[in-house]
Structures are given as structure tokens and as C-alpha cells.
Amino acid sequence: MRKTLARAGSWLLLAVLLAHASDAKPEIFRGEIGDTQCALNIHSLTRSHAEMLKSKKMGGTPGACASYCVQYLGGDFVLSSKNEVYRLDNQEKVRLFAGQRVKITGTLESKSNTIHIVDIKPLQ
After folding, report:
1. Coil, helix or strand at residue 46
2. Is 11 inside a domain boundary?
3. Is residue 20 assigned to a domain?
4. Distance separating alpha carbons of residues 88 and 108, to the nearest angstrom
5. Helix (H, G, I), strand (E, B) or coil at 118
6. Rounded-to-integer distance, Cα 103 and Cα 28, Å
7. Average pLDDT value for residue range 9-19
8. pTM of the predicted model over 0.85
């Protein structure tokens, strides 16, 4: 009997947690689609593409640099916004916006600092 009650309680707790997690309200995030290599100072001292673009090894634009780093250096696309770097859950969706300033509507998972993208548009 105790095991049955414990299982039922566990399932109820899981259902409540999942329902709460899905209640997150979408927010608006603005910034540039970059890559983890540059944005997290893995090969950049300025958290930007500037150094890589000067070397001409990664392409001639921020978008080319970000795409190169993701494709060949094991990076991921991220949203760089002021002093924040957000991970993005849908890498294929943001690939087209590499190097561009964008407006993302999504929910933030604070533990992993990951934005779950609902919509993405270029900023004018």
C-alpha cells in the first residue's frame, strides 16, 4: 500500500512540475546571432568576431565567421546581448540568421541559460 501511495505521489509531483514548466511566458530577446567560440572567448579576447575577421581565416563577415566556427570548430549558435550569452535550442532555425541582429520570442530556461525559440526575426 505504501509503495502504491509513494508512486502515486511521485506521479502527481511530476505532473505538477511539468505543468508549471510549460506555463513559462514567452519573452523578447534582442541581440546578435554569434557562436560560442567567439562569444565565450574561446578564441577571441573581445567576445566578438573582430579578431577572427582581421585574420581572414574565418570569412569576411560576422555571419561567415559564426558559421565557420559552428561547422568546423565545434561551436554552437548563441544569442549575444550586451553582457549576456544565451544558448539556443533550435540550431537549424537560427543558422539562417548567423551574424545578424535579431529579435527572438521565446522562453528562458534559467538553469541552462537556454532560450526555447518560438519565433525569430531580423532587427531592422
Report:
1. coil
2. no
3. no
4. 9
5. strand
6. 7
7. 48
8. no
Residue pair 32/104 in contact (Cβ under 8 Å)? The answer is no
Measured over all CA atoms, what is the biggest interatomic distance in the chain, rounded to whole angstroms? 70
In the three-class reduction of DSSP (H, G, I as helix; E, B as strand; rest coil), residue 28 is classed as strand
Chain centroid to CA 81: 11
At 116, give phi and psi (nearest 5°): -90, 110
Residues 27-53: b if buried by 16+ CB within 10 A, e if exposed: eebebbbbbbbbbbeeebeeebbeebb
Give me the chain's average pLDDT, please.
Answer: 80
Q: Is residue 62 part of a domain?
A: yes
- Report how many domains make up the chain: 1
80 grid coordinates? 549575444
Q: How far apart are the first and last CA of the chain?
A: 63
> One-letter amino acid identity for 58?
M
The boundaries of the domain holding residue 33 are 26-122
Mean pLDDT of the region 79-101: 94
Whether 65 is covered by a domain: the verdict is yes
Calpha distance 40→107 (Å, rounded): 22
Q: Which amino acid is at 34?
A: G
Phi, psi (deg, nearest 5) at residue 99: 80, -5
Average pLDDT for residues 59-65, to the nearest whole number? 82
Indicate the residue type of 108: L
